[in-house]
Write the structure tokens for this entry.
Amino acid sequence: MKFKMNGRVLLIGLAFILFLTPALSAGERLKLSTTTSTENSGLLYELLPPFEKQFNVKVDVISVGTGKALELGKNGDADVVLVHARDLEDQFVADGYGVNRRDVMHNDFVIIGPGADPAGINKAKTAAEALKSIAKKKASFVSRGDKSGTHNKELSIWQEAKVKPSGSWYIESGRGMGEVLIMAHEKGAYTLTDRGTYLAFQKEGKIDLPILFEGDPTLFNPYGIIAVNPDRHPSVNYIMAMALIGWVTSPEGQRIIAVYGKGKYGDPLFYPDAIKSPK
Amino acid sequence: MEYLWGGIREAVILIISLDAEVFRTVLLSLRISLIATLFASIVGIPLGFLISTHAFPLKRSVITFFNTLLSLPTVVVGLFLYSLLSKKGPFGPLGLLFTPTAMVIGQFILATPIIVALTISAIQAMDPRAKMTAMTLGAGAVRTALTVLSEARFALTAAVIAGFGRVIAEVGTAMMVGGNIKGYTRIMTTAIALETAKGEFAFALSLGFILLAVAFAINILFHYFQAKRG
Amino acid sequence: MDPLFALRDITKSYDDSTVLDIPHLIIQQGGIYGIMGPNGAGKSTLLSILAFLLPPTSGTIYWEGVDVDTRDKHQLRKKVTLIIQNPYLFHTTVEKNVVYGLKVRGITKAKRAAKAQACLTMVGLSGFEKRMAYELSGGETQRVAIARALALDPQVLLLDEPTANVDRHGVEQLEGILRKLNEELQITVIVATHDINQAYRLTNEVIYLFDGKIARSPMENLFKGHIVKKDKDLFLFDTGRIQIALIPERDHVSHIAIPPQDIIVSIEPIATSARNSFVGKISQVTDEGEAVSLLVDIGERLKVRITKRSLQEMRLTLGSPVYVTFKSSSVEAF
């Protein structure tokens, strides 16, 4: 008897859950693969909704490391790719996986670290010099270690410094930008990070590390958006991918990018590249 | 400790204020897992019943097979399913990767062996007189089977709950085939993983509390029904 | 009229062992039969065969004169219901248990409810409809099982050790119900039991099974009757023709048996403390090898045994008058 009572209540509750939540699939969808740092910055949740409304489409943002994001494009599992790794992007297009690459925006990388700055990098003239000092001092440094855009940038600077980083001070975490920032904060270590994620985390009080080196042009971090080649994967949503590329490089889209973060952090997180001064 | 307490406080506020993001995530989790468990039951219970009531060559091996599937690592299922659903893979054209449907499929794969294995043990533990009594009273094969299943209903309910418990709490498969897309395939477990990585401790904690509550409820229900089988 | 069951040359074997070997057995419509025997004698096997649940290894069963091999067993099973020693009740209410067979047959809900009420009343459990089956006592469980069988209007009810798990009060109650079913509903009842007293109390014919075979009655000098006089320490049992003194251990006695070996035969009355002494004429003499059995007519026919030598010494023949004497304590009562 009791089972019957409870059973009925349970079934009604389950039916409630099953039917009252919105439908699982609705309308057209566009799969955008991008990096974790891009998603973490929150820009996409400002940039995409007007596009979704105008074109009546839902954009599925799949955020993974740069390598994985491009691979999703190669396999046709994503329709459009937004990453910040110029060399890899060019290769992607050259190999025929992507078409119509556009510059979208850039932010820059900064090197953050413990306030005491044991390696004295704030005196460095170039990024390469800064990293060289860190290696010399064997000060703790957390690396992305995940083939991401940030990681590639870091590796290219080590190369320029002619240093091969290894040892217990060099921590290859294999994690996303946010996790690396927290790790650096916890360990009082240096790390290379994009300004956007850094500002977000710093302002929200998740970490507390000062910027110790910035401004070197080699630290600039340009973002490109690429449509997956429909010749390779006929089933990708090419037209909508092109629409998205159109949107992010349009005056309206670029304006959204230009002002993003100003209200919250004082400075914008990104600088538009398609239209330098959008109105 | 302050960090932890602050997080807990904020998490409770999120829950009490019925924060939209939190509850959307919870409802999506429940929805996907309920549907997956439902299908797993529809397939698993009859399958378990048939296996336990029929003699066939390699019966022992089949039962062992299902028992082994109980401890399938979820990331392995995720990886396997991913390779099938990717555009590169055989089912690519279906476009199922990074959709809730893919997650339902993945959780179905995880839940079914549990339900099959527990159904087999439930039926085997059944009083053999039940079947005989039904037959002496004139029940045909189908009616007898339904009667036996009904007699085992408490143990079978426990089996279904166990299946649900396994999938509501898994992250490996959901992450790999779902893609953790906000508002679409982001469920409690994958959201916790993501939000913690982003340092959104309070949000992750609030989801964590809810998930814990769900896990407790499941456990209590499971034991309630297991106990009643006697 | 054809008997209900006629078994001819029925055997049942498993691998190399034969558990049942019955050349001939008749069950008449409307009787209450007891199948008596020790555990392992084959009672349950015989019941299963009679219920058409178990096919015999060889032999023929005739139901109402017709060879059952020519008939649909499924139909026959509907007329004969077997209730096992520990009946299984479904995990639901008493009423739902009772109507299970009716539901299988598609009987409407209203008719089911009415039938359930009637059957439960028949077994003395009216009002028990909504009780949960697993809450019942051993005796109540048996009665629900009987009610469940009754709902299907069986012609024959077979019961395997129905009172094995029942307390004394419950035993009387159950036996009363079985008798009522037989008398009021004309159901043929066949009860397997190892309790000899029960067999005699309840049934009007007892089939003895020993090692799978039908055996001779171990009970000799078996008489039906009732107690007519009750003294403090002595009762008189009246068979209708003679009265026998006995020391009973129970109030309700329906049968007595007197072991032949306790009866002394003499040609003169003996002065003895034994309370039972009768005179009669020898109506039958049977040679049993070592001994001779005599049937002495004292109003009832009493079987006695003496050695061949005694027969000669006392010069006893057919028609000879003899005295038979036995103690009241020798009389077995049930």
Observations:
- The longest helix of chain A spans residues 2-20.
- Chain A touches chain C at residues 1 (CB under 8 Å).
